[in-house]
Fold this sequence. Notes:
Order of helices and strands: HHHHHHHHHHHHHHHHHHHH
Helix content: over 70%
Mean pLDDT: 83
Distance between the termini: 10 Å
Oligomer: single chain
Low-confidence stretches: 1-14
Structural class: mainly alpha
Shape: globular
Number of strands: 0
Number of helices: 20
Radius of gyration: 22 Å
Amino acid sequence: MKWPLKTKINNILENKDYKRIFENILSLFSLQGLNYILPLITFPYLTRVLGPDKFGLIAFALAFIGYFQILTDYGFNLSATREISIHRYDDIQVSRIYSSVMVTKALLMVFSFLLMTVIVFSFEKFQSDWLLYFFTFGLVLGNLLLPTWFFQGMEKMRYISILNIAISLIYTAAIFIFIRNPADYLYVPLISTIGTVIIGLYSLRLIKREFGVSFIRPSRANVKHQLEEGWHVFISTVAVSLYTISGTFILGFFASNTIVGYFSVAYRIISIANGFLNPISQSIYPYISSLAIKSKEQTINFIKKVTILIGVLSFLISVLIFIFAGLILSILAGNQYDQSVLLIRIMAFLPFIIALSNIFGVQTMLTFNYKQAFSRIIMIGSAINIILTLIMTPIYQAVGISVAMVITEIYITLAMYLYLRGQGINLLEIKRV
């Protein structure tokens, strides 16, 4: 039986929905391309100029501020994206959602800043480098001003692509101009903050001009609604952070900045690999959300196709990372980080595992409103990770953190798959023709 490949390709190209998804994927790939090509230039430079000690200190600061980033984002990156996608043709409703989310995030940011200030000046661990943490917190402000969730919900990712490319170009140029030796480490977060804030302010003007969005003062009910909508995603995001950014944060209390630097370099390389798949998942989520309202069967069939595509790509990426870990490390970080090779190989298959959990969890469970089950699985996984981390990190340090992360991700992926099977959704089922 011949596979009518040409006919299927033509059908896809003629489908307006697929055309829009494909355009968004290309836009995000262009964004991710520069966003990962440019860091592939600055990353090797920073690892060599700053050395493991200062690079590890910056990674610790980013992990610490990451908690406040999560609190400010709250879960709007998914919940607000979904709402904008559903109401994208209703200008008044879009303006109301946009205004409510921005005000809510601003309030959360102010609370985060006050909480961070209290922590920094209350503990000796943070006091000696207090300026580093304040500079790094600027990224929270920059992220607030750059509402990626809005552009994703409107499925106009070319705008956010251009804005993020601009940030990357500013950051890259400034890094080579201002970072000359380890003593310049404070400039790294400051440069990121300034670039993000500038582009963020421009994005707000762009939203008003291109989409006709106006600010509508939200009521308490509007703010409450947004908090309720994002709650389950927020809880799951907090839980996820316990085995992502918390790995670096916890390691910083049990090991030196140098060891943190080894782990951070390994994890950054894995994160770069994960990022190559993000454009696909980010582009299809709004489409899946709107398609689910029309037909559950069509949505599941579409997700199955995506599962095969992303599954194969992520598996190949993981295999290549495992085989060429030493070569990748020597190119990106240099000989100072030889101890990171083992860590990279331990975490090499995280891109494959995380890609599947994203499909099972975000694309499927959240789409079909299995929010409570989604949050429960993530929270159990986080509890497992915390237990493993506290047991293994004092003894095995960076290796312990790496192993704990892999075990946690495997549990979460399997738990989500089995839950969906229990609901009659088998995304790995392939019908024979």
